[in-house]
């Protein structure tokens, strides 16, 4: 006589492996025991929120527990922003109950495989694209790649980082194209500017999560020992300038005090430092981390507070909870605090707009 093996639901298998009761899993996931029973018996397809909660409680991916289709078309989904060309590599993420497609960019910050390819409007997905367990972040923090790596290790979720200045990041958040936007407008002179900017751009119903306090200033060639911003800007300089809307561009404009800006525009703090290091720019405004890593001199101008902004509706999403736990962890605060120019004493603090 032959016996066929009866497949059991992955949630049931994971729960039994931990020797938990249905009630215990329900408590850890924050859902009802009846819902757990229905999911295990395949009488209920869980919502995205319930699926993420079960995955977090069981320390698994959503794909391990519930699987997903292996192919779809771009017409069934929505681009977060249009690709510049096709075919192109694509990531997927679930934002506000929509599956969004993201053209792959900034691979130096995102050491994760693409989820598929888009060819002539058809999206050919990989078998296990973790859209529901992906957190999307738009910010200009040069240490965001380190954050993404630690986030994946500690939470089991994936983070995609899209380099954008604060103004552009808030616009993507407003359009519900990303989960989190980075902003660093607050200074000692204007400590509430991050909150004021979010309130003016997005209104209420948002949180600010403190990432770090950092130093922003002027990156200079190793042989330039200038000690005063005023004396520095009086002499003609070829600047590596950030794009309008960036906090570093605002800092440079304040330093120039109406003087004509001569130079070229670059995107990102690291690009500023690289331009000065390569020799085609005489100076540029960036954070201390990038200047020191490029072997440049650094003339500090001001300290700024870097915050992550997200909707209050996301407050209890497991992906956001994983981010909050990471920023509040002792190990990550130590790690950030050891970066040149970063102060982690307030890292993890949460404020409501």
Summarize the structure.
This protein has three domains: 10-66, lambda repressor-like DNA-binding domains (434 Repressor (Amino-terminal Domain), Orthogonal Bundle), CATH 1.10.260; 74-125, no CATH class; 135-353, D-Maltodextrin-Binding Protein, domain 2, CATH 3.40.190. It is 35% helix and 26% strand. The protein has 14 helices and 15 strands.
- Element string (H = helix, E = strand): HHHHHEEEEEEHEHEHEHEHEHEHEHHEE
> Within the CATH hierarchy, at the fold level, what is the topology of the largest domain?
D-Maltodextrin-Binding Protein, domain 2
Give the number of helices: 14
Find the count of extended strands (DSSP E, 2+ residues).
15
Tell me the radius of gyration. 23 Å
**From the 3D coordinates, which CATH architecture of the largest domain would you assign?**
3-Layer(aba) Sandwich
- Supply the CATH class of the largest domain: Alpha Beta
Number of domains: 3
User: Which class best fits the helix and strand makeup?
Assistant: alpha/beta
Q: Could you report the average pLDDT, rounded to the nearest whole number? A: 90
Distance between the termini: 67 Å
Described by strand count, sense and barrel closure, the largest sheet is: 10 strands, mixed
Which regions have little confidence, pLDDT < 50, spanning 5+ residues? 1-6, 68-75
Strand content: 25-35%
């Amino acid at each position: 006589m032959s016996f066929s093996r009866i497949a059991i639901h992955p949630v049931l298998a994971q729960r039994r492996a931990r020797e938990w009761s249905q009630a215990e899993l329900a408590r850890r996931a924050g859902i009802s025991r009846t819902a757990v029973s229905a999911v295990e018996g395949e009488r209920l397809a869980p919502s995205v929120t319930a699926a993420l909660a079960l995955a977090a409680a069981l320390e698994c991916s959503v794909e391990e527990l519930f699987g997903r289709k292996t192919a779809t078309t771009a017409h069934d989904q929505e681009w977060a922003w249009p690709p510049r060309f096709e075919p192109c590599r694509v990531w997927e993420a679930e934002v506000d109950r929509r599956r969004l497609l993201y053209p792959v960019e900034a691979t130096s910050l995102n050491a994760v495989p693409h989820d598929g390819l888009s060819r002539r409007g058809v999206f050919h997905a990989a078998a296990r694209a973790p859209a529901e367990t992906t957190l999307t972040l738009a910010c200009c923090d040069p240490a965001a790649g380190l954050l993404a790596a630690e986030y994946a290790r500690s939470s089991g979720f994936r983070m995609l980082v899209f380099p954008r200045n604060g103004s552009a990041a808030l616009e993507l958040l407003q359009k519900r194209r990303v989960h989190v936007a980075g902003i660093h407008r607050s200074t000692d002179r204007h400590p509430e500017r991050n909150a004021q900017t979010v309130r003016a751009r997005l209104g209420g119903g948002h949180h600010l999560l403190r990432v770090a306090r950092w130093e922003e200033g002027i990156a200079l060639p190793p042989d330039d020992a200038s000690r005063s911003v005023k004396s520095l800007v009086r002499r003609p300089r070829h600047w590596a300038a950030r794009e309008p809307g960036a906090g570093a561009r605002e800092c440079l404009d304040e330093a120039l005090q109406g003087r004509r800006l001569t130079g070229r525009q670059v995107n990102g703090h690291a690009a500023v430092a690289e331009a000065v290091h390569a020799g085609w720019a005489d100076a540029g405004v960036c954070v201390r981390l990038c200047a020191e890593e490029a072997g440049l001199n650094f003339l500090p101008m001001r300290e700024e507070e870097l915050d992550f902004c997200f909707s209050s509706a996301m407050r209890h999403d497991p992906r956001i909870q994983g981010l909050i736990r990471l920023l509040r962890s002792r190990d990550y605060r130590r790690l950030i605090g050891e970066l040149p120019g970063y102060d982690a004493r307030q890292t993890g603090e949460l404020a409501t707009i």
